TrEMBL record:
Position of the signal peptide: none
Phage-Barnase-EndoU-ColicinE5/D-RelE like nuclease domain segment(s): 302-407
InterPro entries: PBECR3, Phage_head_morphogenesis_dom
Name of the protein this chain belongs to: Phage head protein
Residues in Phage head morphogenesis domain copies: 59-177
Organism: Parasedimentitalea huanghaiensis
Length: 412
């Protein structure tokens, strides 16, 4: 039995991420879903009705995180709702009812996940030089009859059929292609050598104006026009240094890096992940030793250069498990009140990405015993002022790492 589509889409792989990342350098304002046609989708990201740049950047970051980190549909829904509220986005299709909202969120999520997934698979199939490709139906309960008719079709990899019929072939299509090195291998992978293309498979149906079985705007192979670039980008991310997200963020087009990183740090699901990360550390459970909170923006670099004289090009904000243990042990007790500070807990730590993204002030704060420079970020949330000490780790690591965090109450 084939894996459920949700399980498949939560297993990101470098080619899939590269296929999506090639679109992030071109955020396209749009009023309708078909404003980008055919292969133009390979180089542009859009959400129908989203016309403002900051809204598009936030939505792109939410989709990107779903793809690169496999966070799933529930996390995407949280991010989508948070973005809509924050940006005041109204008038979008599906907004008026709960069912409509659920449909719209699933459409945005599934379409981007599926096209990037199959775009990555296309790059892999071409990279593997499989001489035979097999069309496999996605197994939906209510199948498109034409897609079902193609299930098991075996064709050479260079057959013109694949130029327009490589799935997905419409909204919600879960069909896929598998490669084989021989006819016997194609049969083992579900191919049926008795199945052949019917006459007229490449002719537009005069009643619909489209090829039979192909939805409007889906008559192209996803990422087919850029699959060579997908392969090149994917090869750079095979060996991730410590975080899959870091490698992918560094491969973004320079024009998209700041918008993406800011949107990433403001994702609701990222804040929840930081909270869960801190919970796991507090409970003594095993966690990834280091995680990224996104690249420093150009604004961060300028402000830090002004106070420290250092240009932190290609640096990331990072958090590690030892820093969390230090916060919770040194600043997580009720004795903090004696020093005029409040107790730091997991809820406070969840504010870290937002604090670092838009601090009220940044100042130099000496050096560590190991000789690493320290810069101090401060931001006020309501009646609470938070300060975070960040350690500049050397150029080999390119990290601005959280070292300490404390807070004090102020009167309004």
């Amino acid at each position: 039995m084939p894996e459920p589509i949700e399980a498949i889409l939560r297993k990101p792989f470098p080619h899939q991420v590269a296929a999506f990342r090639l679109r992030l350098g071109n955020l396209v304002p749009s009023s309708a879903w078909n404003d980008l046609a055919g292969s133009a989708n390979d180089r542009g990201f859009m959400v129908a009705g989203a016309v403002k740049a900051d809204l598009l950047a936030d939505l792109a970051a939410a989709v990107d995180r779903s793809i690169t980190e496999g966070t799933g549909f529930e996390a995407f829904k949280q991010d989508f709702r948070s973005i809509v509220a924050k940006r005041g986005w109204t008038g979008w299709t599906g907004e008026d009812t709960e069912a409509g909202q659920a449909w719209r969120m699933r459409t945005v999520y599934h379409t981007n996940m599926r096209t990037s997934y199959m775009g990555g698979r296309l790059a892999q199939l071409r990279e593997g030089n499989f001489p035979f490709w097999v069309y496999r139906h996605g197994g939906s309960a209510e199948p498109r009859l034409q897609h079902l008719a193609w299930d098991g079709l075996i064709l050479p990899s260079d057959h013109p059929f694949w130029l327009k019929h490589f799935p997905p072939n419409g909204f919600g299509c879960n069909c896929r292609i598998v490669g084989a090195s021989s006819m016997a291998g194609a049969i083992r992978r579900g191919g049926d050598p008795t199945k052949v293309l019917q006459d007229g498979w490449d002719q537009v149906n005069p009643n619909t104006g489209r090829l039979d079985g192909i939805g409007e705007g889906w008559d192209h192979a996803p990422a087919g026009s850029v699959s060579d670039m997908v392969q090149t980008m994917a090869s750079k991310t095979i060996n991730w240094p410590y975080s899959i997200s870091r490698a992918y963020m560094d491969d973004l087009p320079a024009s998209a890096q700041d918008a993406h990183s800011t949107a990433y740090r403001n994702l609701y699901s990222l804040h929840e992940d930081i909270r869960r990360y801190a919970d796991a550390v507090a409970d003594g459970r095993s966690v990834a030793p280091i995680r990224t909170m996104g690249r420093l923006s150009q604004s961060h670099r300028r402000r830090i250069a002004e106070v420290s004289g250092r240009d932190l090009e290609n640096y990331h904000f990072t958090l590690d498990d030892s820093a969390v243990r230090h916060f919770l042990s040194s600043h997580g007790s009720v004795s903090e009140a004696l020093r005029g500070q409040f107790q730091i807990n997991q809820d406070n730590l969840a504010l870290l990405p937002r604090l670092l993204d838009r601090p009220d002030s940044i100042e130099a704060a000496g050096i560590t015993r190991a000789g690493h420079p320290i810069v101090r970020f401060t931001r006020q949330f309501g009646a609470q002022v938070y300060t975070v000490a960040m350690e500049i780790r050397d150029k080999k690591h390119h990290m601005l790492a959280v070292q300490n965090m404390w807070g004090r109450q102020v009167s309004n």
